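Q: Could you write out the predicted structure for this multi-component system? I'm mainly interested in how the pieces pack against one another.
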Amino acid sequence: MNDEHRTLSGIPVDPVYGEAPLPGDFPYTRGIHPGMYRDRHWTMRMFAGFGTATDTNGRFRELLRSGGTGLSTAFDMPTLMGRDSDHPLSLGEVGRGGVAVDTVEDMAGLFADIDLGAVTTSMTINGPAPILLAMYVVVAEEGGVERARLAGTLQNDILKEYQAQKEYLFPPRPSVRLVTDTIRFTAAEMPHWNPVSVSGYHIREAGSTAAQELAFTLANGFAYVEAAVAAGLAVDEFAPRLSFFFNSHSDFFEEVGKFRAARRIWARWLRDRYGATDERSLKLRFHTQTAGVSLTAQQPEVNIARVALQALAGVLGGTQSLHTDAYDEAHALPTEDAARIALRTQQVIAHETGVTGVADPLGGSTYVEWMTDELERRAEEVFSRLEDEGAGSILEGVLAGIDSGWFMREIAESAYRFEREVNAGERIIVGVNAFTEGDEGRAGRLLRIDQDTEDLQRKRLDAVRRARDDGAVRTALERVAAGAAQPDVNLLPALVEAARARASVGEVVDVLEGVFGTYVETVVV
Amino acid sequence: MAGTPIRVVLAKLGLDGHDRGLKVVARILRDAGMEVVYLGLRQTTDTIVDAVEQEDADVVGISMHNAGHLTLAPLIVCALAEAGLDDVPVVIGGIVPEEDRGELAAAGVAAVLGPGASAAEVVASVRAVLGADAPTS
Amino acid sequence: MRPRADDRAPAGLLAAARGGERRAAARLLTIVEHGGPAAEEVAEATHPLSGGAHVVGITGAPGSGKSTLVGVLATRLTEAGGRPAVVAVDPSSPLTGGAILGDRVRMEAATAAGAFIRSVATRGHGGGLALSVPGSVRVLDACGFDPIVVETVGVGQVEVDVAAAADTTVVVVTPGWGDAVQANKAGLLEVADLFVVNKDDRPGADDARRDLELMLDLSEVSGSAGDDRPAVLSTTATAGDGVDRVLAAVEDHHRRLAAGRGLVERRARRYDAEVRARLGHLLEDAVGHLLTGEPAGGRSSETPVAAARRLAGRLLAGGEHG
């Protein structure tokens, strides 16, 4: 970007300060690229999705027009849970928390008039992720874009669903198999696609500490590596395309230390434990989102300041992409104005603050380096525990921890401790338990999704069902069932055919549930 | 004679999986001396009504983070009434905009706890919907 | 107790509950859990009406999958036309008296099928059950529920008190050497009528079964043999595998008890255990009452042992409440 960087006073500054290892050097504590943001800013990826595909498509195009460089899709709860919009449990939730996608026709509407060969798309979905990826492939191909050209990210991180977010469909083992199927499929056919975004974000939102977020997320990452290797892939075939997704919360230096520790741990483990030799396998790339859970309902404008500081921590931590929360999200889905202010916050950091001029500007700070080391040490303690549980396998250790409720208990304990500290006034949350004056009589504009959306979406689904070839759907679903019953078969090709035949998300999930069964969580309160 | 603890049924109605708030509320109520029958995620009006009836609950707390409260809250109030359990007050928690509170009250919801509610407010709200003499005999 | 819109007297509630009104049964259980004169009234009314139901106790370490197993059992029983009820016990917090009762989560299918499930807090009672459990069982029995499954608290050690409250005791263990050793130490070999190795899909399930059989062999040398030897069955309760065999074994055990003197002996044991628990409770109250009259730090001339003897004498001589 800039060869030369000067401060506001005109003082020229170097691209980096300090001794080796520098940014771009193993173990990448200081960043994965030598030049970091001087070469290229992070991707300002804003999460959007509500109502029908058409509604979200409009928001997407607005975001692209106002300078966003990547799309990120939020799906509604029925879609996330693999239920069609006309399923009884979907009542009241269609198109509310995100966009409703029942069939490939909705996926087509979602990306109408957007060149899929030119944008990168992130899809926040887990249980039914392979089904949605299959639909995306079909939309692209029917629009003349080959699958090999598609670039983007599927969240597809099922382990944290059992630990934190609870949007699982099947028991853990068949679910992990679906993840490895996706990894194998994209490794072979979609070289620009990130098949898994290993996500600490939701673990944190569920109430974990930063140290737990770091440890649990990386453990999950190791688990996927072990699963993919067990499925026959060489680590360097897929590890370069694993990416991460972290939360950026309010404790500024702890967050910066967390991001730095994550890179170092990943690089060391991938090289030393899993034998990766490709440098790209060792470089942990991550997306960051500011902490939704830290947004307050009281004095919501104050959230703009919180978000700005959390975003800055992400940037100083070396994030590759960033979503900033809108200040009104504690009340409802963000309005367009609030979403724009959130994007503008990133632009202020990128263009006005000068933090992009020097890579890892906090590197060498005694406190930040200590914090980085300390968080790494705490994470290693967790890895040791999981290895013991899993008799040497992190994957087995993670599955055992899910089964026994260990992860959930750890997270619930932390959440409750935080809540008690706030209630006791030991932790100050501005506008909540201190400085509370000034919150009277405000009622901002809120985005509302009305019940008409639900009716409309059901009609769309009905129309697709009436227009499709039922015989082709049946054949495709039978193939999915047959593939599911055979653990060695990669299910993705069958899922692509089911999407092409206009099978709905719910229909495919029902078929898979028939083979895989369902899951009841280990309740930890 | 010692008082009987207040019995509260806590559940998430609908598909969303955000149970952090519900779990924290469960602990808050336990620590206030109440007995919490925890139903957890993805409950239906049927499972909630069954639990309220069999557990002889004094109050039922429903958590929703899916913006579906205006659709779902009246359903649970009606389902309880149909089962003859209309004396069991319904408290809604989660992301509920201020301006929706009137409509929820009109639909028969006894109280709404927003995202900023403190532990003291949670406990006070449960006691309040049961009447001041609620905690003991 | 909190006044409610539904404030019928126990007799009215019982009549309604026996007529199939579940809410009335639930109200009776609340009264029994609460204790006091109304609870005694309920006990008087239900005592002559009870004794018909088969009471099955289920215990096991935390994480053994008890609730899941109980849920599947109750589902199968309901689907087969039965009227099972479940009493699921969880601990009360010793500090606040509150409790989180989470067993229904794993029994959703059972509720959907129509089983009656009641979550109960221990309210300060040790041993894995609440003091009120026998009374609750009596209410459910009098209301026509059969069988009645009592699931104990699963905190720390396996709880053995359940054996004194049930006709048939099922002990659930999971693969892993620790549980088998635990079972031996906790005296479960003596109380179990049936062992279930749950989570049979886990590594170590065969070992757990073998260990249990071995320990039963050893105890057989000194004691029970033949028909009394508890069976060791395997289940994967989450998938419902093996549950039918457990059900058959539980029913078989009940038949064998009923055919001989077994059921009569168990009922006598249940009765005695309840008397003992109630007596202990009454004595504790009486002791508390006695001590309120004593000066702090005692009398200077009297040793603690002598003070206890003097007070015990008053208690025994003076009858109720010293």
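A: Regarding packing and overall arrangement: The first strand of chain C starts at residue 55 and ends at 60.
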